[in-house]
TrEMBL record:
Membrane spanning residue stretches: none
Residues engaged in binding ATP: K280
Molecular functions per Gene Ontology: ATP binding; eukaryotic translation initiation factor 2alpha kinase activity; RNA binding
Entry keywords, A to Z: ATP-binding, Kinase, Nucleotide-binding, Phosphoprotein, RNA-binding, Serine/threonine-protein kinase, Transferase
Domain DRBM intervals: 1-34, 71-139
Top-rank EC class of the record's enzyme: transferase
Every Protein kinase domain range: 251-514
InterPro entries from the UniProt entry: CC_SR_Kinase, dsRBD_dom, Kinase-like_dom_sf, Prot_kinase_dom, Protein_kinase_ATP_BS, Ser/Thr_kinase_AS
One GO cellular component, as annotated: nucleus
Record field: compositional bias (Low complexity): 156-172
UniProt organism field: Platysternon megacephalum
Protein's name in the database: non-specific serine/threonine protein kinase
Pfam families for the chain: dsrm, Pkinase
Biased composition (Polar residues): 173-186
Length: 525
């Protein structure tokens, strides 16, 4: 299909991609020629003059096999140059065997990190990180533009559709409507004070203003449906990020805050209680149903709180949601929406990044680690294994409290055989290469997290170079010198012999002993 601006032209098919594209171009050309009622030839020839329309952009949507990859790195570079802000790509992780490396890059624009992207080579990983950053920037700008357009449309409706207002303004010889507009496009206090069916006689009692009173009362019936009702309804219908009726009906200020192969996560304000929530949108499957079932059983101060879930038809990525000028039912799929607690302070990954190059954060690190272990202890007590503990899946609430989240890989201890290679490779325990393992895999991840928040690498590149040594429990000499007791705990958590790793409860006991031996850190208990 050819898409020019927001106009979609007829779908065409072919025996291969080139033939299908040529047929689609021919169909679009013929449509343009017919609409313009010109004598343009029906098939494009090399000698034909170009039409006066702008060149068509790449297809707005297509299958993974047909779409031409966009250079998101170049697009972001242009964006940052235009807005005079810095952009930086950091190599955060490098894992996998030599013949099948997996690289992970983060993209930082200004002072904000826009998640990570992965790929089989560094260039692909950078492109993936740039793509995520570009999508989030685009969605933020689209959201702002939509809100400004709604305000402008509402004001124009009042000014153009109300004959009473025009007559009232003319009678006074001034543009009173303009005077009643604030700088942000909203109506001033006098207009807001006007109620439907309200008798204005007390304010407009003199004969001189009698006509004005009548005219103002005439416009009130038009004000309610056009401004208070119809505009809100249409704004919801045109939501850029979702087509799900319940999400649009129950929430406002819907903004994407995360995306990946799993689906998307939105920040959304509930219309009734006015609170912000995180709403996760994923494709329906047995795996995501297990995630919901686990979340419904877990209720703890250090676990992301689950509220409700529902199913609906929607797109699975932002590109389709943003680019379609009209609904395409064939691109919709059965999705599961999970409403959860929203954590205002982001992730532990963000917390670590904010402290790169700084000193004296270790006491705060131990406080956070104890909360993480407390949450893991509760998960294990309910018979679950998280399997994907890492800083990106650990959140921080507005009260500075740790909240473990993302239970997409959670599994139950009642399952005899477990899937292999499930989790984030750089935080996976050695035994996860097989199908027989237990809750000890979460303990191994805790050991890596404890080291990472006590000894924050100055750069992501430094972490990549040293991380394989940390996984083998070869810790820097300076760390061992400055943190001897913590080193002792980490060595137990990273033990290759799973029998030597303590349980989550055992880790809490080690932290208790540590606090007793270090009175200055007693408040971390």
């Amino acid at each position: 299909m050819v898409v020019i601006g927001d106009r979609e032209y007829p779908v065409a098919t072919g025996k291969n991609k080139k033939e299908a594209k040529e047929e689609a171009a021919k169909a679009a050309w013929d449509s343009i020629a017919q609409e313009n009622q010109t004598s343009l030839p029906q098939t494009p020839q090399p000698q034909l003059p170009q039409p006066s329309l702008p060149p068509p952009p790449p297809p707005a949507f297509s299958s993974d096999e047909e779409i031409q990859p966009l250079d998101y790195i170049s697009m972001l570079t242009k964006y940052t140059l235009k807005h005079n802000i810095m952009i930086d790509y950091k190599l955060e992780d490098e894992s996998g065997p030599p013949h099948k490396k997996i690289f992970s890059y983060s993209c930082k624009i200004g002072d904000k990190i826009y998640g990570e992207g992965t790929g089989n080579d560094k260039k692909a990983a950078k492109q993936a990180a740039a793509k995520r950053a570009y999508e989030q920037l685009r969605s933020q700008e689209t959201s702002r533009a939509g809100r400004h357009a709604a305000v402008a449309s509402s004001a124009n409706s009042l000014l153009s559709n109300s004959s009473g207002m025009s007559s009232w303004s003319s009678a006074n010889g001034t543009d009173s409507a303009s005077k009643n507009m604030n700088s942000d496009g909203s109506l001033a206090s006098k207009m807001n004070d006007l109620k439907v069916g309200e008798d204005c006689s007390s304010s407009w009692a003199t004969p001189k203003n009698a006509v004005m009173k009548t005219k103002r009362r005439e416009i009130t019936p038009k004000l309610a449906p056009s401004f208070l009702g119809q505009q809100v309804k249409e704004e919801k219908k045109e939501n850029k990020y979702t087509k799900d009726e319940r999400l649009i009906k129950d929430f406002e200020e819907i903004e994407p805050i995360g995306s990946g192969g799993f689906g998307n996560v939105f920040k959304a304000k509930q219309i009734i209680d006015k609170k912000n929530y995180a709403v996760k949108r994923v494709k329906c499957s047995d795996k995501v149903q297990r995630e919901v079932q686990a979340l419904a059983e877990l209720e703890h101060e250090n676990i992301i709180r689950y509220y409700t879930s529902w199913t609906g038809k929607d797109y699975l990525n932002f590109e389709n949601s943003l680019s379609l000028s009209r609904p395409r039912p064939d691109l919709l799929c059965d999705c599961l929406f999970i409403q959860m607690e929203f954590c205002e302070k982001g992730t532990l990954y963000d917390w670590i990044d904010d402290r790169r190059g700084k000193e004296n954060y270790q006491t705060e690190s131990l406080i956070k680690f104890r909360q993480i272990v407390t949450g893991v202890e509760y998960i294990h007590s309910k018979g679950f294994i998280h399997r994907d503990l890492k800083p990106l899946n650990i959140f921080i609430s507005s009260e500075d409290k740790i909240k473990i989240g993302d239970f997409g890989l959670v599994t139950s201890m009642t399952d005899d055989l477990r899937t292999t290679e499930k989790g984030t490779r750089s935080y996976m325990s050695p035994e996860q290469a097989g199908d027989k393992y237990g809750q000890e895999v979460d303990i191994f991840a805790l050991g890596l997290i404890l080291f990472e928040i006590l000894w924050i690498f100055s750069t992501g590149t430094e972490k990549i170079k040293e991380w394989h040594k940390i996984r083998e429990c070869v810790l820097p000499q300076e760390f061992s010198k400055n943190f001897p007791l913590e080193k002792h705990i980490i060595e137990q958590l990273l033990s290759k012999d799973v029998a030597k790793r303590p349980s989550a409860s055992g880790v809490l006991e080690l932290l208790e002993l540590f606090a007793k031996k270090n009175p200055k850190n007693a408040h971390t208990r």
